[in-house]
Amino acid sequence: PTTIYLQDYKPFGWIIDDVHLTFRLHPTATRVISRIRFRPDYDVTDRPFFLHGEDLKHISAKVDGHDIELRHVDGGIEADVPHAPFNWEAEVEINPEANTALEGLYRSNSMYCTQCEAEGFRKITWYPDRPDVMAQFTVRIESTAEHTPVMLSNGNGLFYQQDQTQPGAPNVSIYQDPWPKPAYLFALVAGDLVAHEDRFATMSGKDVSLAIWVRPGDEHKCAFGMEALKKSMKWDEDVYGREYDLDEFNIVAVDDFNMGAMENKGLNIFNSSCVLASPETSTDGNFERIEAIIAHEYFHNWTGNRITCRDWFQLCLKEGLTVYRDQQFTADMRSAPVARISNVLALRARQFPEDQGPLSHPVRPESFQEINNFYTATVYEKGAEVIGMLKTLVGDANYSKALDLYFERHDGDAATIEDWLQVFEDATGRDLGQFKRWYSQSGTPKVTVSEAWSEDGTLTLTFRQETAPTPGQEQKEPQVIPVNVGLLNPNGDEVMETRTLELTEAEQSFSFSGHSARPVPSILRGFSAPVILEQNMDNARRAFLLAHDTDPFNRWEAGRMLSRDALMSAIIDGAAINSDYLDGLKAVLRDDTLDPAYRALMLGQPTQSELAGLLHQAGHTPDPSRIHTASEAMRDAKATALADLLPTLYHDNQVSGTFSPEAEPAGKRALANAALALISRGDGGTLAAEQYDQADNMTQQLAALSCLLDAGTGAQQLAAFENQWSQDRLVMDKWFSLQIIHANPEDVVETTRRLTHHMDFDWKNPNRFRAVMGALQMHHAGFHHEGGDAYELLADWLIRLDPVNPQTTARMCTAFQTWRRYDAPRQEMISAQLDRIAAQEGLSGDASEMISRIRG
Ligand code: HT7
Ligand code: ZN
User: Closest Cα to residue 449, out of 460, 437, 461?
Assistant: First the structure.
């Protein structure tokens, strides 16, 4: 495997004016004819003419009308071409039906579809498949089959013909995209699709046709996605001044897809799970996620498409910024505190383990073998946190000024992180040299804070920051860490509003004077930096902040820390769950001035895998079985302590009338269902069974079924659920996952194995594979159950999937990334499975890079 380095970047050497592609679609033998106008980049003259290409059957290649000889080299071809402008014409044949990797042009349910990011275009034709080569594309699609009445590509539709008069005459459609783009944004879709259509008038009065294309029968699942799209278009105009730039915007839903969705210019392609929604089949969580993903892909039109990345090392330039923008959108559409807490929960669950384990890498990596392995929580979510910190440091007005300058200066460019930071430096006059370390230094900084009070009325906070070594980075330098702090007096009134302290040194103190009584600091409000905060705080102080903090994030965090510490003591010392936490929780839950969604989050507790990480950090070897027991004990303690309150929470938060996925009713359902989960621990599932019978939407149905499975009384409902939904793939994914998630640890492997024999376990479909194998690895106590059967089962399936779909296999290998946390027998068992996978003949580059990094 070849390693590619950021420092080795070299421009391509030629400029492309335009690209004309003709596709003659055929399930097993599609012809692709490319006509490309190249001209030398006269600044760069020292390199051979190289075009990428993989799995292409070469038919012909001509330069200025004359056949040309190609030299086949690793990953593509070289040719001797004139050192002057020339016309390239080539024809290749590809086999969409055989393409199970879902990169390039492939078939899903007899529909043609493409996925080109990051390096899939090279599986379509010979081309400089790199993001810094931008060109205008015109695409002609021909198909003789009657099951491709709809044929779409990027940009605006110019021509469409369905000739039914002459037998065998092809359907033809032509699309032109006026905006230069890199090949990774190319898309083509053809199939028997129906549209849910709408229109949007942009801020300058341009009329845009919008369509969501789906398989016949799914039309009723498009309305929510369409509303989300229009809200996103309006929000980007209002908040960032960004207007849409084509006459049409198409979204297509596809069942077989490696990730969530793809922002191809004017033709977004979505995993059907991330766009199709209806109250009967989708939970509130699904609706919220769909809204965020539609926004995310739409926002890429400016942050990613109009301004793209110079090379794949700059991936966070588009992904970090676009995640940040979609998080802002969700905060505006729904509750900002709830959105922030949810983002931090996701960061701690996915990014922290990555950054503290063998896969740790900088937000902007400096080398890779397979770029697909770097679409990570670090690039996306930590990348977004870095932008949030930048905004906190420069302030809202300067952030807007910098963004305006970014769009003005770099529209049409393939840009770098240096360009991005330069814009902020120019807009604000601020030196961001030290801040840039957030892009190059991996690992989660630990910030330790101590307090000193002097009787002259001064509180001094002393901060120390340090980051543990990570792969390839032994020494760490201090980073710029914005720490938002507020102060409360002993009565619980705020005496200092939130202020941003800028940590730049390894150790630094800040004093706050003029206080008549010792104030209580609320530190890292809003989780203003992606760090681990170590604060020596007793339960009484945490309970005080849980009761009084005016910052909703830190109020929630105080409760979280109480429950975390209670769980840790239960795991380590077998201690009973302490009453400070339960009393504080009760008071918050009783306060019905608080948003139900926020109160539902208060009822949550750290996951078992998070606890394993915390134990490891604290120098203990996590025992999955003890963690499981303590987590269950915590739920029992809550059920008992809140017994009087739970029925009220349940009944007061019932929502009647037509289902609405809006934040307010969804929040009520979340609180009622969190209460139901605790009630079910005491009533054997009676109330949950009632809810199951009455449910007219998936949120209520699934929540009730989960409670019943936990109570061990859901067999009949589980069968009824399967019967009711057997024809709906997305709902059946839930049915598969649910049984594993709610199995007892000792039954997890057997349940998983049984499900892999189910006739609907279509393991080549990434959603179904993830529904089963993703649930297996997420069940902490089941996955790490003694004996190591789960490790072996997952490894068996990864070995089987790898030749079919390396990208999904490699992502799923991350299940093993935390292996060094556990005891010696578990480490040995995991290590044996990693070795077994690594030893497979023909193992993909994707999986082999992941396994060798995880092994360390
Ligand atoms: N930019 C896209 C990332 C992506 C992807 C999507 C679907 C299938 C394979 C993919 N490889 C990379 C999605 C996004 O971040 O918006
Ligand atoms: Zn993205």
Answer: 461
Closest CA to 794 of 765, 774, 771, 819: 774
For 759-808, what is each residue's pLDDT tens digit?
999 999 999 999 999 999 999 999 999 999 999 999 999 999 999 999 99
Task: Say what the pTM is.
Answer: 0.98
Residue nearest to atom 15 of ligand 1 (CA): 319
Q: How far is the CA of 377 from the centre of ligand 2 (A)?
A: 12
Q: Is 297 a catalytic residue?
A: yes
How many helices (DSSP H) and strands (DSSP E) are in the chain? Answer: 30, 31
CA of 261 to the centre of ligand 1 (A): 6
Residues 23 and 115 in one domain: yes
The yes-or-no verdict on residue 212 having pLDDT over 80 is: yes
Name which of 111, 86, 84 is nearest 96 in CA terms.
111
Same domain, 108 and 160: yes
SS (H, E, C) 672-710: HHHHHHHHHHHHCCHHHHHHHHHCCCHHHHHHHHHHHHH
Beta strands in 467-587 (DSSP E): 481-488, 494-503, 507-512, 520-523, 532-535
Q: Distance, CA 323 to ligand 2 centroid (Å)?
A: 7
Give this complex's ipTM: 0.98
Same domain, 827 and 750: yes
* Cβ–Cβ < 8 Å for 376, 361: yes
Q: Work out which ligand 1 atom sits closest to the CA atom of 319.
A: 15
Spell out which residues line ligand 1, taking CB within 6 angstroms.
115, 117-118, 258-259, 261-263, 296-297, 300, 319, 375
One domain, residues 8 and 154: yes
Same domain, 435 and 417: yes
Instruction: Output the domain CATH number for residue 462.
Output: 2.60.40.1840
Q: Which tokens belong to 294?
A: 């539609």
